[in-house]
Design goal:
Layout lengths: L12 H4 L6 H11 L2 E2 L12 H12 L12 H10 L10 E4 L1 H13 L5 E6 L3 H9 L3 E8 L4 E2 L1 H7 L4 E7 L11 H14 L2 E5 L25 E6 L12 E4 L2 H14 L5 H10 L5 H22 L11 E5 L1 H4 L5 H12 L1 E2 L1 E2 L13 E5 L4 H13 L1
Length: about 375
Amino acid sequence: MTHSPGHRSPVSARAAQLSGTGLLELFLLARARGAVDLAVGTPGYPETSGDMIEEAVRALRDGHNQYEHPAGHAPLRQRIAESLGTPTDPDTEITITAGATEALYVALMATVDPGDEVVLLTPGFEQFTSAVGLVGATARFVPLHGPDWRYDPAELAAAFGPRTRAIVLNTPGNPTGRVLTRQELDEIAELCERWNVTAICDEVYREYVFDGRRHISVADVPGLAERSVVVGSLSKSHAVSGWRLGFLRADRTRTEAFRRVHELTTLGAAVPLQVAAGRAALSVDLGTAAAEMGKRRDLAQDIFSRMGMKFAPVEGGCFLFADISPLTGGRQDGMAFVRELLDRSGVLLVPGADFFSDPARGEQFVRVAFNRQAEVLREAERRLLAA
């Protein structure tokens, strides 16, 4: 049967395929109960720099309240370029975006066409899958295998083909806490060269790597460097997630395309906040913040291992991804476990199913955010172990 235009849905097919996670109800319930929130990634640690706040106020009073160059405030682009390990031209290779979320969408819209394929690792940040779908591309998933969440090189190679246009990476990873090694990045580089694929890498947690590891950017790897896009943000490193300051780092040709898309979507990020970050970002002691985050990682691992959860040591980022099957015996899924834990202890975690392309693979996992003040983690410890 054919349908007349009058019977068409008012919602696009791309929007209709998006689904909620069911977590909003939990968040509201947790807030009403005064629960300890170890679910969302909003930084409780580090604290927002007082210097950055004062500079934001000064920028407003100094008159930085109108449009800026869409590419971003030049001093902030310079600061970001200087912070990267890779030599970067702030004038032609850095674009300031409205958070890492916009950066990801801009990179995808400027890189892939409808019908192209994008390789994603699973489990991974659930927004990657939605973003690929919204730009009309098809996701090709490569499983990461627990407990240490590594891909099988043969499975990765099998995901690439003539229609592959990009691979989206995340290191350090959300939710797994994995830091991609040089060997893994070299393997990815070889595939990207063979199939002429762009590597888009979310590196927003790059400041937080533990146990003597070193963050390696895709922009620093031969074979990837010339076909890489770095997605970055100040949200977690500088604790300004509400400022929505992200960035894209790429070669001149890609950057020109990114800026055209960026101009037609947001035009620019908040100007006074860009000015403030450009003036005061260097006042933030990232080395101390990283060391302190490592201590919080250790505390979180101690708490949840004592509860009986199993996990690989977190290599980087601010999330612990834990197997709850020793506690559930496989008889209770992640959402039911999280709800019961909230009822018993007043501590909120995130069920793991939504991080997997096949939610059934994630029913026995939860994610824990440990970027919190130490006293918040200690309160969670008290409640959890008492329950």
